[in-house]
Specification:
Length: 416
């Protein structure tokens, strides 16, 4: 019986399995297989940044790139580039390309340059059309929009950190600091809790923000004392004034170098860091990196420029009325020669460690009739304030900015 049962099962399996196998097989396998070659359109070799649906191919300048490398990248001969650079409107903007700038190329089917587009400046764009040996130029005006913005902040760690939290650029912060630099020493006077309010411009074009503009007005509370700066144009020159109409710009700057650290003060009994002997330190030392610009503390005539014993490379300025200033240990001098006039804030040299110096710094001296005075404490003469009709015009012109400062101040007080 068992032998009969196994025999029956064997017959059933042999019958069913081939049926499943046939059912699972693709019917097409029974046909002869063929391979067809279908032609496909070639992939277009577009430059990075090409605008879809347009003949113009936009290229953004990367750091270190020159016009020559961009033309080579686009397959345009150098001879064509030189023809373009011969145009007065193209030479300056194209030979001074900055990272982030955009150029647009219009290339023909065989790769020839038919057109080139670039920004001549913030407010105008140039479009060149090349036809044979002829180049046609079209200037497209791009109006700029100046938007008035307000910002405020409080010092908790540094001026730059507070400015960044308020949305201010470093350029705007530097401008504000320069306006108050005659009254506030930003290297040693800042304290946690100091506050500032700023009314400034932003430059926009075609709905896009380009950059921060100028400071219109600012107020700064330092150690509980409030200082105000209002921009006003007088005699074709823009200056900052306080609320009474007196120029903030003094006859002399307290610091002839930006954001440096005081490494040694005026001291009649200081031990010299190189010689090791006790000798009077008749100036103030500002530690800064080699190459940091040094500015003229006031309008003056160059009395000396060269090497001066332990001072190394040195500039001495004569400001008149018996006042002279000395700037020592420079790595290199500026372009001014003895006898030339310099204006306050002009770069006259660069920080170094020449002469008897233990490290890169500026040694700055202030002398009155040959007698050394402490630059940090000497009394500076005040400039004359605006009077009469000019004072009336100043108040009318700065009233809107003052009103905006008050609004920002009110918001700050309400949030406390």
């Amino acid at each position: 019986m068992l032998a009969g049962l196994f025999g029956s099962l064997t017959v059933l399996v042999a019958t069913i399995v081939p049926g499943f196998s046939g059912a699972m097989r693709d019917p097409g396998d029974a046909l002869a297989r063929r391979t067809l070659s279908l032609p496909l359109p070639p992939i277009a070799d577009k430059a990075a940044g090409a605008v879809a649906g347009s003949a113009w191919q936009v290229v953004r300048v990367q750091s270190g790139q020159t016009l020559g490398t961009l033309f080579e990248q686009m397959g345009v001969p150098a001879s064509v580039m030189h023809r373009v650079l011969a145009l007065p409107s193209a030479k300056t903007p194209l030979s001074r390309l900055r990272a982030g700038a955009e150029l647009a190329f219009d290339l023909g089917a065989s790769g020839e340059l038919r057109g080139l587009r670039f920004d001549r400046d913030e407010a105008s764009r140039v479009e060149l059309s090349l036809q044979g040996d002829q180049i046609k130029e079209t200037v497209i005006e791009r109006p700029l929009e100046r938007r008035v913005m307000v910002a405020s902040g409080e010092i908790t760690s540094s001026l730059y950190a507070a400015g960044a939290a308020a949305g201010l650029s470093n350029a705007a912060l530097n401008q504000m600091a320069n306006a108050f630099s005659y009254d506030i020493d930003f290297t040693r006077d800042l304290r946690d809790g100091d506050r500032f309010q700023v009314v400034y411009e932003e430059i926009w074009r075609d709905g896009e923000r380009l950059r921060s503009g100028d400071i219109i007005a600012a107020s700064f509370v330092n150690r509980g004392k409030e200082f105000t700066a209002l921009k006003y144009e007088r005699g074709g020159k823009t200056e900052f004034f306080d609320i009474t109409g007196r120029p903030l710009k003094k006859s002399f700057m307290r610091m002839p170098i930006e954001f440096a650290r005081i490494s040694s003060r005026f001291n009649p009994n200081r031990r010299h860091p190189v010689l090791g002997t006790v000798r009077a330190h008749k100036g103030v030392d500002y530690a800064a990196g080699t190459g940091t610009p040094i500015m003229a503390a006031g309008d003056a005539r160059v009395a000396f420029a060269g090497w001066q014993n332990g001072y190394g490379r040195t500039i001495v300025l004569d400001h008149g009325r018996g006042i002279t200033t000395l700037y020592g240990h420079m790595s290199r001098l500026g372009s001014y020669k003895v006898g030339q006039r310099v204006q306050q804030g002009t770069t006259i040299g660069f920080v170094g460690a020449t002469g008897l110096a233990s490290g890169p710094h500026l040694h700055y001296e202030f002398r009155v009739n040959g007698v050394h005075r402490d630059p940090l404490t000497v009394t500076m003469p005040k400039p004359e304030p605006l009077v009469g009709a000019e004072l009336v015009a100043f108040r009318a012109a700065t009233a809107p900015a003052m009103a905006q400062l008050k609004v920002v101040e009110g918001i700050q007080l309400a949030s406390r």
